[in-house]
Amino acid sequence: MDKQAASNIRYRQEDTSYFDKRGLSRYAGPWSLWALGVGAVISGHYSGWNLGLAIGGWGGMVLATIVIAIMYLGLTFCIAEMSPALPHTGAAYSFARSSMGPWGGFVTGLCENVEYILTPAVIVFFIGSYLGSIFETPAAMQPVWWIIGYILFVGLNIVGVELSFKVTLTVTLLALAVLVVFWISALPNIDFSTWALNIGPGGEELPGGGGPFLPMGIGGALAALPFAVWLFLAIEQLPLAAEESVDPKRDMPKGIILGMITLIVSASMILFLNPSVVGVGAYALGQSGEPLLDGFAAIYGSGLAKVLALVAIIGLISSFHTIIFAQGRQIYSLSRAGYFPTWLSITHGTRKTPHVAMIAGACLGLVIMLVLFVGLGVDEGSAVIGGTLLNMAVFGAMCSYIAQAASFILLRKHRADIPRPYRSPFGVPGAWVTIVIAVVTLGFQLSDPTYRIGILGVIVWFAIAIAYFALVGRHRLILSPEEEFAMERREQVQKSTTDDGTAVPGKS
């Protein structure tokens, strides 16, 4: 049965067999959700954030991290309110669909899709960088490490949600344990002034240290914002597990808030200690693809450091594994509702995991990596290839954050009827702060010529996908749980506001 709504949006109502082929299993409790959020982010404390040191110096990265932490606090409290109120796998798309209609839902989902396709690519890139350093393999072998990583962890995620969450909890705890070992090891081996402040005003190395707090000024701190994002990026993925959570209305707020507290503590420690280790320094870390390995090597020597770095890869594996989980659910939700081709949302017959979506997302991410690898050249270095992928992922994330914060504001204003088991203490002002910081971050991303080409590539992808939705996709939508929730709520509001008490036909 077809239903037609405003803007020529056409829906098809499927029978139970359609959703039987797309079923998920409930398993996750609050600690599983905490591990999903922290595990997704923790690799950013191992690699990626450090590239901002070359742009803003140590002080610039500190200021950038404080600003970005404020943005994420605003965002996570918005999500903590919206996710139990709209407990669907669609997450960001679901929030925007209920507040801004099908077009808003699609564009928001598209932005988040870029983030979840490219973030695993960034992480597996750094996994390859670590493994290449440990086993001393040539740079040309990097794609082999990437392919092995994707095959192993997509396969693990396909096996089943219970195993996936158990692995997530285990590797997240191990990843945090490795960081704690590094913190304890680093504390007696730091010289902050000599090594963390060894970048001069022009970006040159100061061998004796003692450089300025902001060697590139406030502009450098603002330019470092995209790299500070890497210390928190993907904590927002928790609502993607809503339909696999035992009690999302109770557990989602707990999981995401506890996760954010954990990440702030960890980010503060790594930002202070890693550049301060004697023999490392902010200047060298600004060019490094494996900063934690550099820190271990300076403390324990290169031989033992390689053993420790092999253990340290657990942090990267933790994020890679959990974001592949999120990637699959994000593609699954948009496909189940018809925004993406519906065959992508078919779940495994016995495992009840979105295996098709995970395989498709992994293949697309791998193709993008190989294009960059060939286009930029084998000898271009991790700072450019990894930084380009990182900035592309951050660009999609920032657009998604703006849309999610806007959804929060609109839902507070126009959909007060939705029951909210949890309410953000920051309210609408917190959402506006998130939007402002995200917009500023986008502006400084576009101002960096080194990474601009990657961001322009994302914009081209947006244009192609939006054209597809305008011409084809909007005529093939499915009445999925997110869509039905949004339409039914809109009809209830319209009915309650009519003067004569009669129902007004719902419009999406």
UniProtKB/TrEMBL annotation:
<feature type="transmembrane region" description="Helical">
    <location>
        <begin position="450"/>
        <end position="471"/>
    </location>
</feature>
<dbReference type="InterPro" id="IPR050367">
    <property type="entry name" value="APC_superfamily"/>
</dbReference>
<feature type="transmembrane region" description="Helical">
    <location>
        <begin position="304"/>
        <end position="326"/>
    </location>
</feature>
<feature type="transmembrane region" description="Helical">
    <location>
        <begin position="167"/>
        <end position="186"/>
    </location>
</feature>
<feature type="transmembrane region" description="Helical">
    <location>
        <begin position="141"/>
        <end position="160"/>
    </location>
</feature>
<feature type="transmembrane region" description="Helical">
    <location>
        <begin position="356"/>
        <end position="378"/>
    </location>
</feature>
<feature type="transmembrane region" description="Helical">
    <location>
        <begin position="116"/>
        <end position="135"/>
    </location>
</feature>
<feature type="transmembrane region" description="Helical">
    <location>
        <begin position="256"/>
        <end position="284"/>
    </location>
</feature>
<dbReference type="Pfam" id="PF13520">
    <property type="entry name" value="AA_permease_2"/>
</dbReference>
<dbReference type="InterPro" id="IPR002293">
    <property type="entry name" value="AA/rel_permease1"/>
</dbReference>
<feature type="transmembrane region" description="Helical">
    <location>
        <begin position="213"/>
        <end position="235"/>
    </location>
</feature>
<keyword id="KW-0472">Membrane</keyword>
<feature type="transmembrane region" description="Helical">
    <location>
        <begin position="423"/>
        <end position="444"/>
    </location>
</feature>
<protein>
    <submittedName>
        <fullName>Amino acid ABC transporter permease</fullName>
    </submittedName>
</protein>
<feature type="transmembrane region" description="Helical">
    <location>
        <begin position="390"/>
        <end position="411"/>
    </location>
</feature>
<keyword id="KW-0812">Transmembrane</keyword>
<keyword id="KW-1133">Transmembrane helix</keyword>
<feature type="transmembrane region" description="Helical">
    <location>
        <begin position="55"/>
        <end position="80"/>
    </location>
</feature>
<keyword id="KW-1003">Cell membrane</keyword>
<feature type="region of interest" description="Disordered">
    <location>
        <begin position="489"/>
        <end position="508"/>
    </location>
</feature>
<feature type="transmembrane region" description="Helical">
    <location>
        <begin position="31"/>
        <end position="49"/>
    </location>
</feature>
